[in-house]
Amino acid sequence: MNSTASRRASGIERMERKWGIILALPAILGFFIFTVGPMLASLLFSMTNWNIGGEFRFIGINNYKHMVTEDELFSKSLFVTVYYTLGSVPLGILGSFIVALLLNQKVKALPIFRTIFYLPVLVPSIANTMLWLWIFNPDFGLLNSLLKSIGLPVSQWIYGESTAIPSLILMSTWGVGNAAVIFLAGLQGVPSHLYEAVEVDGGGMLRKFWHITLPSMTPTIFFNVIMAMIGTFQVFNEAYVMTNGGPNNSTLFYIFYLYRTAFTETKMGYACALAWVLFLIIMAMTALVFRSSKFWVYYEGEGKI
Q: How far apart are the first and last CA of the chain?
């Protein structure tokens, strides 16, 4: 009796295992065919001098040597991207956190306010850039019109070499709604009894925020910092639609330079090398943030990670 039941159970286990593999196989094959395969191919191409439509010859790490020692646009694009990241990520995190704190209050018409703040995220990226082209227009744009109306000097915004990146950093705050929603979910997950304990001890709003809200939100801040940093290293539409990398390469973002190298100059081998360097940079920055998290990220009941 027991042997019959065990054989039946093992047969069910084998059938479940077989169907599990069959159902997971499309996703596994898709991952290897459309992700791992192209990555390995790009690594091979990065060690060649392949131009689109031409033959390619293996040149080892010469593309990487040229990138570091001779290509001034590589260092320029990397500087522009890091500059944008250092400005956009802190501003976006701070802005989205403040918006989430406001949306977490008990006020009338709160769903309407939440919709308004999240609405820019739903607008297509190209439509956003076209809107901001008008806002930044130095002749009849919204920002300069407002500055003129209050007697302040106007700016060239994205059309000035020194103001182009700060202007795009300002534009990046337009999309804080996505991170704000994540922050809002984190705020609503903070246990209410912690706030009650602070009230019993006579603590006010500032003490609640500093000792309860902020430590409880550090895992969410950590996640949003990682995602925002990865996103800013892959900025493309702003340069492609609004500035074309100008003026004087002041908005030559790394991804835009990679695109231009691959599809305008048709240097696919060198573009693959640029892509792998970007991959390593993002991996290194992400690892650095993960390493630093043990000093400032807290989990309830566990302390620092």
A: 51
Q: In the numeric block, which tokens belong to residue 71? A: 């290509």
CATH class (in words) of the domain with range 64-294: mainly alpha
* Residue closest to 181 by CA, chosen among 125, 119, 108, 109: 119
- Identify the CA nearest to 71 among candidates 236, 261, 234: 261
Residue 4 tokens read as 């019959």
In whole angstroms, give the CA distance from residue 305 to residue 302: 7
Site of tokens 């534009």 = 171
Give the pLDDT confidence of 222-249 residue by residue, as tens digits: 999 999 999 999 999 999 999 999 899 9
Stretches where the chain sits below pLDDT 70 are 1-9, 11, 300-305
Write down how long the chain is.
305
Could you state, in order of their start, the residue ranges of all structural domains in the chain?
Answer: 11-47, 64-294
Closest residue by Cα to residue 158 from 260, 239, 237: 239
Whether the predicted model's global pTM rises above the 0.70 cut: yes
